[in-house]
Amino acid sequence: CSYKLRNVELHPLWQSSSSVTGGTKQSPIDIQARSSVFDPKLKPLSICYDPTTCLQIWNNGYSFVVEFDDTTENSVVTGGPLNNNFRLKQFHFHWGAINDWGSEHTVDSKVFPAELHLVHWNSDLYKCFEEAIMEENGLAVIGVFLKLGTHHPELQSVIDLFPSIKYKDAVAAFTYFDPSTLMPSCPDYWTYDGSLTTPPLTESVTWIIKKKPIEVTQNQLAAFRSLFFTSIGEEEKKMVDNFRPLQPLMDRTVRSSFR
Ligand SMILES: NS(=O)(=O)c1ccc(Cc2ccc([N+](=O)[O-])cc2)cc1
Ligand SMILES: [Zn+2]
Known about the structure:
mainly beta; 13-stranded mixed beta sheet; two-stranded parallel ribbon; 4 helices; about 10% helix; about 30% strand; disordered N terminus; binds 4-[(4-nitrophenyl)methyl]benzenesulfonamide; binds zinc ion
């Protein structure tokens, strides 16, 4: 049952950041489908990724991160709710210790076992990712839910590198990958203004949450749980439950691209 309360003890990172004082646009949130407002002015998302911009995969102690060369406009997203060009910087995931929880966003309180975040920064307004993180309209993050189902071959090419990045700060070369293979074919999405879900929790993110999940197998989810939060030589702590608790919607409306 994916409605189980998530009574997990939080990784230190999220303990202190379960709510930011004064934050009015924090993420993640529960997306109540019936309260979202269809916006006919929302355009289709325009996503164009060049697989040769893929650089490396590493364990940053919170998740595994696949990073891209963002010195050119070769891998970008625009359209949808976005009024600027956003360059792909990295993608990472959030997941649970078991399949009953793991995603950051929820839909009508339904929790998914994992969630993919594709992180982009506004290259029309800012000079680099580090600057954009701190600024209004600085980032666009596409969220994709994962659900249990068939084997995902393209995700498997990422998972196959896990033995080389088991511990914090381990890095491996990963030089050809198209992250659009990790997205569902259905164009429908929700969008709202929110924040980073890890420190510095800045309210700089236009969230674009795909309505349809992608399918992965139990073994593929279990592979995520073979990673460690800790560095080599430290007492091992399995990398699981690296999601932030739900935050209040406050004075925000979630828009949908579909009726
Ligand atoms: N989970 S999420 O909201 O999509 C998210 C997106 C990007 C990041 C990456 C990141 C955010 C901030 C910093 N920093 O301030 O050094 C470094 C990396 C962290 C978290
Ligand atoms: Zn994330």
